[in-house]
Design brief:
By secondary structure, this protein is of the alpha+beta class. The chain is built from 11 helices and 13 strands. Helix 1 packs parallel to helix 6, helix 2 packs antiparallel against helix 6 and helix 7 runs parallel beside helix 11. Strands 3-2-1-6-5-4 form a 6-stranded antiparallel sheet, sandwiched between helices. A 5-stranded mixed sheet has the order 8-10-11-13-12, with helices on one face. Helix content is about 50%, strand content about 20%. The chain binds adenosine-5'-triphosphate (ATP) and magnesium ion. The site of magnesium ion has 5 residues, from helix 9. Adenosine-5'-triphosphate binds next to helix 9 and helix 11.
């Protein structure tokens, strides 16, 4: 390529990069931001696809977060070793790399190709670093024509630098957002407490009214206490400060233990609980206490949002094709309208029709989701209004 043509191509790529960087700076939702970054990376490096691996400083490992083209549920959360992988090399050396034939490179971590059924022909990877802090690795995979060039590396490095700052900003924003949300949410119970104490002090309040106000005080105080505990759990989980104590354990036994804990409450509501747990289940690797908390949150919902005389089914199984351990919790309760289904996992979200009838903080499912995704699993929900709801937990079998 003549020199001036080369220069104008580089300039136009930098122009695109500036546009992308401006876009990135305005994105504060981490998932959306990461997706934009990989799309931009594939585009700017003329690659078939791109992916981001994030660095977990506590576990000292990299894990896949997003990728273009391929079904990200396949790779999301997949751990890539710091040693014996190209991404790991980039993260340790904090240097970019171009590899023309990864299949022949001894560092190539084949597990990813095997899972996605794709073959990496060429890789251009850059570290995501901001203020000396390792954030992760950005990889462009399979150059559309020819090989990756030093020019590709230069623009991807520039994109990586912008991306790292944007990721860090979005994380900081999420933290301050969390505090704001909490303060917002405790306002309602606080103002009820305030009103109730004023009424209690009122000289002409009748004994009957006073007792009623005491009742309000008690429930609101309880709600505040519950909210603070769940909120603390959640913020620890979200920021990755909550350590997972991973062990191998018998999930069947844990499920039966959960059943024992909820049996009494279910009986009081005339609910029948069915337990379907096969004998020969494999052991699960995970944090037993946290998974127990997740299951209890789901079972509590199955009781709370059920109908008098309804049913709850607790089922465990192994899906052979997906190599997943499944736990299903279904109820024959009030159900959830479709439009709320994606929102119920959000912090503080409660279906409006339920919130005036049943007590709750709207944090239970957010905690569940954090625990399950922390195990590199996922949770799905199906529901029909008036008929009932089924939550399914998928945990990867190792
Ligand atoms: N099994 C279910 N059947 C019907 N609706 C449900 C069910 N589980 C959850 N929901 C809906 O999803 C919302 C969010 O659930 P979540 O468990 O996060 O909060 P919560 O139950 O309201 O409060 P808590 O923090 O005490 O658990 C609920 O308010 C309810 O509207
Ligand atoms: Mg709940």
């Amino acid at each position: 390529m003549p020199n001036n043509k080369k220069l104008s191509s580089l300039l136009s790529r930098y122009q695109r990069l500036i546009q992308i960087s401006l876009d990135l700076a305005s994105k504060l939702d981490l998932d959306i931001l990461l997706m934009e970054i990989v799309r931009a990376a594939a585009d700017i490096a003329d690659a078939e696809e791109a992916s981001i691996l994030l660095y977990d400083p506590i576990k000292e490992e990299l894990y896949f977060q997003v990728a273009t083209n391929i079904d990200s549920t396949l790779v999301r959360g997949m751990v890539v070793p710091l040693h014996n992988s190209i991404a790991g090399w980039i993260a340790r050396k904090r240097e970019p790399i171009i590899i023309d034939n990864p299949q022949e490179d001894e560092r190539h971590f084949r597990h990813v190709d095997n899972t996605t059924k794709m073959t990496s022909r060429s890789i251009l990877g850059v570290p995501l670093v901001t203020k000396d802090k390792m954030i992760g690795v950005l990889e462009a995979i399979n150059k559309k024509e020819g090989d990756f060039t030093p020019e590709d590396q230069e623009v991807l490095m520039a994109l990586g630098a912008q991306a790292a700052v944007a990721i860090e900003n979005s994380r900081l924003f999420q933290q301050s957002d969390l505090i704001g949300e909490f303060v917002h949410e405790i306002r309602t119970p606080l103002s009820s407490l305030n009103a109730a104490t004023h009424l209690l002090e009122h000289p002409r309040a009748s004994q009957d009214q006073k007792e009623k106000m005491m009742g309000v005080l008690n429930t609101e105080i309880e709600r505040l206490a519950e909210m603070s505990t769940s909120f603390l759990d959640l913020s620890r989980l979200e920021s990755g400060r909550s350590q997972f104590k991973i062990e191998k354990f018998d999930m069947g036994e844990l499920l039966r233990g959960c059943y024992d804990l909820i049996e009494k409450e279910a009986l009081e509501k005339s609910l029948t609980v069915f337990v379907d747990i096969p004998q020969d289940l494999p052991l699960v690797r995970g944090d037993r206490a946290k998974l127990k908390q997740a299951l209890l949150n789901l079972l509590n919902n199955a009781i709370k949002y059920n109908k008098e005389g309804g049913q709850i089914t607790l089922r465990a199984a192994v899906s052979l094709e997906e190599k997943d351990f499944l736990v299903e919790i279904s109820d024959t309760g009030v159900g959830i309208e479709k439009k709320h289904l994606t929102l119920i996992f959000e912090k503080f979200y409660r279906v409006p029709e339920h919130s005036d009838k049943v007590e709750g903080t709207g944090l239970g499912l957010s905690v569940v989701k954090q625990i399950i995704t922390g195990h590199r699993g996922r949770i799905s929900v199906e529901s029909e209004v008036g008929k009932g709801t089924t939550f399914t937990i998928h945990l990867p079998l190792l």
